[in-house]
Amino acid sequence: xxxxLEPPLxxxxxxxxxxxxxxxxxxxxxxxxxxxxxxxxxxPRSGTVCAERxxxxxxxxxxxxxxxxxFATAEELPRGAALCGTCDGRAVGAGQDTWxxxxxxxxxxxxxxxxxxxxxxxxxTEWCTLLAWNVGTCLxxxxxxxxxxxxxxxxxxxxxxxxxxxxxxVPGCPFHAWRELELKDGHVRCGCGRPGTTQNDPEQxxxxxxxxxxxxxxxxxx
Length: 222
Ligand SMILES: [Zn+2]
Ligand SMILES: [Zn+2]
Ligand SMILES: [Zn+2]
Known about the structure:
The protein is mostly beta strands. The chain folds into 2 domains: 2-108, no CATH class; 112-222, no CATH class. Helices cover 4% and strands 29% of the residues. The protein is built from 1 helix and 16 strands. It has one helix at 85-93; strands at 2-4, 24-25, 28-30, 32-34, 44-50, 53-58, 63-65, 72-74, 82-84, 106-108, 128-132, 135-138, 144-150, 157-160, 181-184, 187-190. It is elongated, with a radius of gyration of 24 Å. 23% of the residues are buried. Residues 197-222 have low confidence and may be disordered. Bound molecules: zinc ion (3 copies). One zinc ion (ZN) binds next to loops.
């Protein structure tokens, strides 16, 4: 059994490589597809063929290429198979198909969470308390590391070596995690003005502090 695919509507403009034929939409496709590096099965939303190369756009927004080694399709999933929850919910919601497995598949969806980065954001910065001319304690995570120059001759910088975050890592901002940290008045905090706060901790409400002169909060709109 195959499913009827949606038209591959896009808002990304009409440009395509001049030396390639125009892609042709596929009208039907397999119920389930799985790429070689995928941890779960997905459902195709639309598909195109271009120069004999078949590409599926999945309901979750990813793409899958039929020509990739290890690409697989399935019409039925074995019980217990892991399936993309976004794909199954959208495909069923849009009326393309019924739920994949009677009795319920094991749905998987992995939202972004406040998981500390593998490399401390203080790596290669001077955000530290100097203990000696070339040793410092990281203001973000409390680890003591040597300071070195890094980068090439045209882009060299002086700072702590790359290091995994220590146990004293400042809590991540609930909106920007550890990506937007900045040093202000000797303290590390998120660029949005929030001090670090842990998820679901009512003792530390995530209220902006010292936002005077800052226009970086609430500017996102709808
Ligand atoms: Zn998916
Ligand atoms: Zn650190
Ligand atoms: Zn923030």
